[in-house]
Amino acid sequence: MTASAQESLFRAWLAAHAAIPRKISRVYAPGDHDDLHQAMLVQLWRSLPRFNGQCAATTWIYRVCLNTALTWRRDEARRTRWLASEPASDVPATAPDGENTERIARLYAAIHQLAAADRTLVLLLLDQLPYSEIAEITGLTPNAVGARLTRARARLAQLIEQIP
Questions:
Q1: How buried is 20 (Cβ within 10 angstroms: 0-12 exposed, 13-18 middle, 19+ buried)?
Q2: In 3-state terms, what secondary structure has residue 90?
Q3: Which end of the chain has a smaller Cβ tally under 10 Å, C or N?
Q4: What is residue 131's DSSP assignment?
Q5: How far apart are CA 89 and CA 36, in angstroms?
Q6: What is the pLDDT of residues 84-133, one digit of tens each?
Q7: Domain boundaries in the chain?
Q8: Pick the CATH number of 88-164 from 1.10.3720.10, 3.40.1390.10, 2.30.110.10, 1.10.10.10
Q9: How far is CA 1 from the centre of its chain?
Q10: Rounded Cα gap, residues 93 and 21, in angstroms
Q11: Triad 33, 95, 73: Cα angle to 5°
């Protein structure tokens, strides 16, 4: 792939799918989401020549971004050795009213408390991806995705109830 072709494809992907790395970075690093977002974009750029078209572009972008986020979290834990994380306070609302803003902030705070695997599945579900695509992105079977999401939803409901 030539440099200009890579740049054109990268720009097209960013124009069409800019929300994917942004949402993943907010879930996996609410305090440092800008740094993680940048790391995801760099990794997408570096891995672009290895994209062979065997899966959809969105699947590839999710895989690269999720793997980057998981690596980021692991490395961050090694560097700082902290267990408790700050709540997601800068989550944008989809609606201007304060109630929706509060509900979205509570949802992201609860998602942030889930285990990493559950967090990934819930994030992909929130993007309204079908189980088959979630399975392709995560390497699970569609049945395993369904079972894990059932448990993750139950845990998420408990967590949301506990958040003031």
A1: buried
A2: coil
A3: C
A4: H
A5: 16
A6: 444 444 444 444 556 678 888 888 889 989 998 899 899 899 888 899 99
A7: 1-86, 88-164
A8: 1.10.10.10
A9: 28
A10: 17
A11: 15
